[in-house]
Structures are given as structure tokens and as C-alpha cells.
Design goal:
Elements lengths: L17 E5 L12 H15 L5 E11 L3 E3 L15 H5 L8 H13 L5 E3 L6 H10 L7 E7 L4 H10 L8 E7 L17 H16 L2 H5 L1 H4 L3 H4 L8 H9 L3 E7 L2 E2 L3 E2 L2 E6 L2
Parallel strand pairs: 1-6, 2-5, 2-6, 3-4
Antiparallel strand pairs: 1-10, 7-10, 8-9
Helix pairs in contact: 5-10
Amino acid sequence: MTAHFSTPSSATSTAVPALFVSHGAPLFALEAGETGPALSRWGTELKAQFPGLRGVVVMSPHWMARSPQVMAGPQPATWHDFGGFPPALYQLQYPAPGSPALASEVLALLGAAGIFAQGDAARPFDHGAWVPLMHLFPKADVPVVQLALPASAGPAEVYAMGAALRSLRSEGVLVMGTGSMTHNLSEFFGGAREPAPYVLEFSRWVEAALQRGDIKALLNYRSQAPHSARAHPTEDHFLPIFFALGAAGGDLRANYLSREVMYSMLAMDAFALHPVH
């Protein structure tokens, strides 16, 4: 497998690319840095390329459950699932509609793959979903269905969940994982500082593996990537990358939208995954 770099407009496939986005700290909603505008540009290009875009299916580590769950309500609320931030952050709303019909499709596809999930009609959007979506689709005009990250899942299980939904990409649906390329909050001290060397080494190892199309190495990142335990003391914020990889399939090319690092330790990498032709 060979991975290439491409812009969204050069993709010849009729399938919507899969996407991984680092959602950063909740303040990313207000302090967009370089990544927010990059996501906005890409979202605008995507909607122009796919005028029939009918929904987003997104996995965030801020919804973890014992077993797979699927948001099924028609109008999910915006959940401010954090504390201690400026009041302006709590005033933000992301009123994108849900899609019970798309949720039913997701449930059926997961079930067909032997992954048995339940719908949750009361689930709100957590900030891992709505914060990056505010930048991607600021008009909140694309229906969104969120999936829970199973608490016991590892990379292979999350990859399988994305793979089960791969066909949705040919039906006008963006399949998206949102987490963080690095996420060691014990090292968060605030202030603008240079990126920590380990953050860059880990992030560029992931990029190099994507360039090679080396899914096996990525699935085994815990033992193969440099500084993996420091970059991710727990796996939850890295696992959604495998949701995007599973949805993309093995033969892919990666288009990086951002390599920004915030607070020296929070890598904001975001990339779209296109099929190779």
C-alpha cells in the first residue's frame, strides 16, 4: 500500500473522504489558532465537492460507554461537558440536527458486521464533537450522528467499527474520528511555548506510517511509536484515529490539514483520508 498527499478537490472518487481531527482543549471553540481556519476551508471545499452531503458520523472520546451506542435523536443538545472556562464558552451552541434515519443505517451496518449497538435518543453533542464541527461546518446545517467509543475497545476494535461504516462514504456521509494526536494533560501548564520534542517525534511517526500506508504499524503504535505512553498515558484520545482509518480502508492517501501544536504538548494534527486511484 502506498499513501500519497492530495488536496480535497483533486480526489476523483465519488466517496466522501474519511477524516481525523484533533479537537484540542474546549477553548479551541474560541481560540481557533491555525487549525480552526484550516478546518473551515476544508469543510467549505468538501460541501462544494459533495453538494449532496447528507450527514456526519463522528466518534469522540468524550462519549465512552460499556458497549457501542449511537445517537438517535432528531435535535441533539449542545453539552458543555467541562468546567472552569470563560463564560463566553458556555454560551456557544451548535444546533446541527441529528438524523434518526442515518442512525438507523449506522445501527444496521454495525449489526451486519457483528457489532451490536443500541440507539440513544437523548444523547447530546459533547465538546469533542461540537467544537471541531463548529469550525468544519459553522452554519450547523449538516446532520450529525455521534457514536460512543466502547470503553473496552482497542485499536483493532475501533478500526472494525469504522470499517463497518465504510460504505456510508459512497452515500454522501462524512465518517470522522475526533480526538488528539497527543494528549498528556499532566503536562498542560498554559502559555505559548515551543512544541515539546516528543510531541513532534510521535506525531511525525504517525504521519510517516500514513505515508507508507502502514496500517499494521499504526495498529501496533503502542509498542512501535516513539514516546507513545507519554503522548497518550491513556488511549482514549488516540483511538478515534482508527475509526477514521477503518472507514477509509487500507489503500489510502492522507491530506494533512494541520500540524499545529498548542500549549507545547497538544498536537492538533488533522488529516483527510482518500482512496488511492
